[in-house]
Write a structure and sequence with these properties.
Layout: H1 11-21, H2 25-36, E1 49-51, H3 53-59, H4 84-94, H5 98-103, E2 105-107, E3 112-113, H6 125-134, H7 136-150, H8 153-158, H9 161-169, H10 178-191, H11 197-208, H12 223-236, H13 246-256
Antiparallel strand pairs: 1-2, 2-3
Length: 258
């Protein structure tokens, strides 16, 4: 459940975000990096999520607080491990109330909450989830929608990271130092280089095929990426070039139905 095509970010997706919001690419990449470490999918082709138990409690009016306190609790927290464990928590909530469970979960690159689906341009939360399963471009589009409806692109343009973090992550943003992290990564990307989309595509493909784990997708071609690439080339009978050559990328896209 929730596995999708999991297509990677494209130049078109980034350009659309930058143009729509009127921001510079380093600011956009800073947000993406802080929210999901720069990748919107898990190695099993499911979108990265975070299940929020206090939102589930609120949306169901506390109906399940006594019987399922781990997933329905008026007090925020109890998140546990990231990654697949969040889907274990979501599964418990789904069995109680599917719509509220999906609405109580943040989805994809921008970690947009499900209850914001209509605000960010989707018919309902099911449509947001379906889009999030398909591609990072769709996940990014949801993030664009949230920034637009909240009128906070201005803070990305001015570098007002505390203001942006407050509106995007909530009043408790300082607990996780969101503003400091955004500022740090923004400065890093201003210095350059920014993540390379071709390298990201390679890394995402390798990760989804089992050659890389969480944190593997960062847009920089390092030693770990090259080792995974060589292993893939050897396993598939491709020429072991250690580079993302045309035959390798074509085979990768074919294996993943991209």
């Amino acid at each position: 459940m929730f596995e999708g095509k999991a297509s990677p970010l494209t130049a078109h997706g980034i350009a659309r975000a930058v143009d729509t919001l009127g921001v510079e690419a380093p600011a956009l990449w800073a947000v993406l990096t802080v929210e999901t470490s720069g990748c919107g999918f898990l190695p099993d082709r499911r979108p990265k999520i975070l299940f929020e138990r206090h939102w589930f409690s609120r949306l169901t009016r506390g109906k399940f607080d006594n019987q399922a306190q781990d997933v329905s609790n008026p007090i925020a927290g109890g998140y546990g491990a990231t990654g697949t464990f969040q889907y274990d928590r979501l599964a418990k909530a789904l069995a109680l109330d599917r719509t509220a469970a999906l609405q109580s979960t943040s989805w994809g690159l921008g970690q947009v909450m499900g209850f914001n689906a209509s605000k960010v341009g989707f018919v309902d939360v099911e449509a947001l989830v379906t889009a999030s399963q398909a591609s990072e471009d769709a996940q990014l589009q949801a993030m664009i929608g949230f920034v637009q409806q909240a009128n906070i692109a201005q803070y990305l343009r001015s570098g007002s990271w505390a203001d942006f973090a407050h509106h995007y992550n909530g009043a408790d943003f300082q607990k996780n130092k969101y503003d400091e992290k955004l500022d740090l990564f923004h400065k890093r990307f201003l210095q350059g280089p920014m993540p390379d989309l071709t390298v990201r595509t390679l890394q995402m493909g390798l990760m989804l095929l089992g050659y890389g784990g969480p944190g593997f997708v960062d847009g920089w071609f390092g030693n770990g990426t090259q080792k995974a690439l060589i292993k893939y080339q050897q396993t598939t009978g491709l020429a072991t070039t250690g580079t993302a050559d045309v035959p390798t990328m074509a085979r990768l896209r074919s294996d993943l139905n991209w």
